[in-house]
Specification:
156 residues; extended
Length: 156
């Protein structure tokens, strides 16, 4: 849109009539293949496109945090907001951890880089809580030791 506007201005301005911008090449339209599933009746039905979301995990977390035992409900709009927040946070943390890894000239993303990314991206108090929760989750589900193991001193 910006290029079209600039081209329009350039063609009608008296100072720039000597230099005309080259015409834009139009892209060929690609045929979009629709995933079609045949039913038993022979009718064709479109397959729904799936997309990754954290909705089930958010709802499960809300259920575990409920103390009164009542059903937890959230509107679709609220769930969309929380889901977009989680996706944005994940993208920011993963991007920062990746940048730290490339800066260190290492090919493997380590837990140290992820912890540093959390410290850089989140406010101080939230970062400490997030790191503590992450460490306890790794300890619970057996992902290995988060911190470096202490070197034992040899006795002579």
């Amino acid at each position: 849109l910006k290029l079209q506007f600039l081209y329009f201005i350039a063609t009608f301005s008296p100072n720039l009539q000597k230099r005309k911008m080259p015409a834009r090449k139009e892209k060929k339209e690609k045929k979009v293949s629709k995933k079609v599933k045949k039913e038993e009746d022979g009718e064709k039905r479109r397959k729904r496109s799936s997309y990754a979301s954290y909705n089930t995990y958010i709802h499960r977390l809300m259920r575990t945090q409920d103390t009164k035992g009542s059903k937890v409900q959230i509107t679709a709009k609220g769930m969309a907001i929380v889901n977009s927040f989680v996706v944005d946070l994940f993208d920011r943390l993963a991007g920062e951890a990746g940048r730290l890894t490339t800066h260190a000239q290492v090919k493997t993303l380590s837990s140290k880089a992820v912890m540093a990314a959390v410290k850089l991206q989140l406010p101080k108090e939230l970062a400490t809580h997030a790191l503590a929760a992450g460490a306890s989750a790794v300890g619970t589900f057996g992902g290995g030791d988060v911190t470096k193991p202490k070197k034992s001193k040899k006795k002579n």
